[in-house]
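Extended Data, record Apple domain-containing protein
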Amino acid sequence: MDIFFYAFISLIIPIIKNVMSQVCPLQNGICYGGTFEANKRKKGQYLVGASYKNLSTVRHIQGCFSACVNECLCRAYQMSSTGCELLEEDKNSRTLEPNSDYIYFELNQNIIRSTSYMANPSICKNGCCLSSPCLNGGTCTEQCEHPKTKFVCVCPSYAIGKRCEHFMPKSCLDFYKAPNARIKPTRGVYTIFKNDNSTLFKVYCDFTQPNKAWTLIESFATKHIQEFRPKSFMEDYPLNQETPGNHKKYRLARQDMQMIKATAMSYRATCKFLTRANVTDRDYMEGRLSAWDIIEEASDDPYPEYCRRLTYVNVEGYSCSDCTMALFQKKGTWHAHGEMRHGCDFQPPGYNNTAWQVFGWYQPIRSSFLCTDSEDSTTEYWLGHEMK
Ligand SMILES: *[C@@H]1O[C@H](CO)[C@@H](O)[C@H](O)[C@H]1NC(C)=O
Ligand SMILES: *[C@@H]1O[C@H](CO)[C@@H](O)[C@H](O)[C@H]1NC(C)=O
Ligand SMILES: *[C@@H]1O[C@H](CO)[C@@H](O)[C@H](O)[C@H]1NC(C)=O
Ligand SMILES: *[C@@H]1O[C@H](CO)[C@@H](O)[C@H](O)[C@H]1NC(C)=O
């Protein structure tokens, strides 16, 4: 019995020690040779947070080795009582930690250059981008320098990770851009990341064809006008950050407005957004931030400083495109707003140089203007991003 057992063991050990493998993803590309080296195992150690695929049905270490060898992303592998884990990191990029349930193995491969590769060494081809491993619109490039790096993904600004697998939207536009958002997203509350890639906050987004995404920075009902009247966008006056869908009283913190503005192109003011299907057809204003940075810049006398160019404005059915309108804002004094004034282009007929203020300052409150046609009617300000 014992003799038989020893014979069995001595037979199996040399086999395990000498498992060779050669993988050639492409006929005319480079190949990877590797050997399963049982004696290089790290017993009782493992890598935390680096597994990208778990194979619970693979119960033998050689099966785990074969699985790793056949994947371009795999750098190391480990076995535990729950099966085989393929790792996208190895002990050179992360620290092994003790865990008696695990055995860790490094994938040691070398590059075998085919004759066609030798003939044309400037062209790196290993087939590792064929399966489109980069997610969220990342760009894949095959790499032939080192057997542990077979491809790299260059991620768009809204994704991170080796394969750009973590979608990290930083503005409403990212929901438009991301390839997994194939259908046009709909207006509503979305969660985005701050620039640190870890802090989340909620925003209200609207999407307009063909290429714009709008982030709500403020909204208030006419009954709260006294509270908002002196609050220019230079003030930090956060309100109801957790409920951007509450348009009766909402305002983004100034630093969040600034973060969104950093990549925005335009701004707009709308009336009663939540109750109307089309907010551009009446009582609407849109301008470029390059013509007036409403987050950072006051707008005041003297003439013609306050005549600011707008892309489009509509007040009570009167409109003009690519024209100027008197726009005001003053820290601690005036909310951003528009006025009919001599000198600027936008002067609706019937205008008689008495106060007629719109989009954030209403004195008197006009029931003919949609933002103020009832106590619950709202004025909204937005920052706009554009798809290039
Ligand atoms: C694989 O399993 C380990 C241990 O259960 C777990 O920590 C890890 O998150 C899993 N990885 C994936 C990609 O599911
Ligand atoms: C956040 O992720 C983006 C996109 O990958 C990256 O460019 C940026 O440097 C990251 N920021 C931090 C603070 O890590
Ligand atoms: C909204 O109304 C404007 C002006 O009437 C029109 O040009 C635009 O196409 C409308 N937009 C939608 C989405 O219906
Ligand atoms: C000026 O216009 C306002 C608002 O349309 C109106 O209430 C007022 O009667 C007008 N004043 C004159 C002198 O026409």
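Summary. The chain has two domains: 18-112, 172-386.
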